[in-house]
Write a structure and sequence with these properties.
This protein has four helices and 15 strands. It has about 375 residues and is α+β, with helices and mostly antiparallel strands. The chain has three domains: about 55-70 and about 260-315 and about 325-360, Elongation Factor Tu (Ef-tu), domain 3 (Beta Barrel), CATH 2.40.30.170; about 70-105 and about 225-255, RNA polymerase II/Efflux pump adaptor protein, barrel-sandwich hybrid domain (OB fold (Dihydrolipoamide Acetyltransferase, E2P)); about 105-225. The strands form three sheets. It has a seven-stranded antiparallel beta sheet with strand order 1-15-12-13-14-11-2. A hairpin with a 6-residue loop joins strand 12 (about 280-285) and strand 13. The protein is rod-shaped and about 180 Å long.
């Protein structure tokens, strides 16, 4: 029986292609969740920092509204409305005719005042006529006096020649004295007439003429008030008058809103006013026009909080006091080029953002406790 030699066994190396032990499913989920969490935290931190910086440099509020002056249009005289030439929400320019009041009554008043001026002027002319009459009477008296002097001289010459009797000479002397007295009387009458006319012109007639002319001017002014014109550019609103209606002086007829001069009143919290100054640029959006941005300028900051000027201001010097963050009105003017169509209306809600011009470095320097 053949014996076989036993060969030593050669150790075999492990196969390198064998698969590694797989990770547990729970480990993969935790890693993925950790990555997602880190990403979310990083994104949240980034957006939080951006939001903090934006809130520190661009100050925003939603407590803001558009305002404008409302110009009331009223009548200065009473009467019946003859024509109304405008309608609600119509744009008018300064000087446009809005309505007319029946002017016939005021035309009669003007004619009456003009007649009064003519009467007063005629009275002044009558005084001048009296003066001219007195002057003519004086000239006549002087002529008679000169003739009486001539007759007396001739009679004296004839009396020396014994041609004229003494009786006729005495008559010529008496006639000369009478003529002289008449001349003096005429002179006094002229001076009296001139004095009376002068006083009348200075104190009476002229004053009456001025009074009548003043009445004429008042009547013409009242007549001009029958036409009501637009005091400035703007939109007609709250029209409450129609043709044929009787109106009284001072009665409001309509209102005029100049939207071209509108502004924004933004009520910012007192903590937001630290870096706000007049002249800073403002951007704002309006709920009525989403996606559109308008521009403006910070005009001024009110001298007190809104509650300080309310009807019943708070009394803080009481025993029970709770601090409440106050709001201060800020006026923002609207750039005219930003709203050429005048789309903005009074009372609209807006969200203004004041661009303070501060940089990111300014914000972080404020946070540095070692500055």
């Amino acid at each position: 029986m053949e014996e076989t030699s036993a060969e030593p066994a050669v150790p075999t190396e492990p196969d390198s292609t064998e698969p590694l032990p797989e990770r547990k499913p729970g480990t993969r989920k935790r890693t993925k969740a950790l990555l997602i969490l880190l990403t979310v935290c990083a994104a949240g931190g980034w957006f939080g920092i951006r939001l903090f910086i934006s809130g520190s440099t661009n100050i925003e509020t939603d407590n803001a509204f558009i305002e404008a002056r409302v110009v009331p249009v009223s009548a200065k005289v009473s009467g019946t409305v003859a024509r109304v030439l405008v309608k609600d929400n119509q744009f008018v320019k300064q000087g446009d005719l809005l309505l007319e009041i029946d002017e016939r009554d005021y035309q009669l008043q003007r004619a009456k005042a003009a007649a009064g001026v003519g009467i007063a002027e005629n009275e002044s002319g009558g005084e001048q006529v009296k003066v001219e009459g007195a002057r003519a009477a004086l000239q006549s008296a002087r002529a008679r006096f000169d003739q009486a002097v001539t007759d007396q001289t001739r009679a004296e010459n004839l009396f020396r020649r014994d041609v004229l009797p003494k009786e006729q000479l005495d008559r010529t002397i008496t006639a000369r004295r009478v003529a002289e007295a008449q001349q003096k009387e005429a002179e006094e009458s002229l001076r009296r007439m001139q004095a009376e006319a002068g006083l009348a012109i200075k104190a009476g007639i002229n004053a009456k003429i001025r009074e009548r002319k003043a009445q004429l001017g008042e009547a013409e002014l009242q007549l001009s008030y029958t036409k009501i014109y637009a005091p400035r550019d703007g939109y007609i609103t709250r029209k409450s008058v129609e043709t044929g209606v009787n109106i009284q002086a001072g009665q409001p007829l309509m209102a005029l809103v100049p939207l071209q001069d509108a502004w924004i009143t933004a009520n910012y919290k007192e903590r937001q006013l630290t870096w706000m100054k007049p002249g800073q640029k403002v951007e704002f959006s309006v709920d009525a026009y989403p996606g559109r941005t308008f521009s403006g300028t910070l005009d001024s900051i009110m001298a007190g909080t809104g509650s300080a000027f309310s009807l019943l201001p708070p009394e803080n010097a009481t025993g029970n006091y709770v601090k409440v963050v106050q709001r201060i009105p800020v006026k923002i003017t609207i750039d005219r080029n930003s709203d050429p169509e005048h789309l903005l209306r009074v009372g609209m809600s807006v969200v203004p953002v004041v661009l303070t011009g501060r940089s990111t470095g300014d914000v972080f320097r404020e946070l540095n406790p070692f500055r």
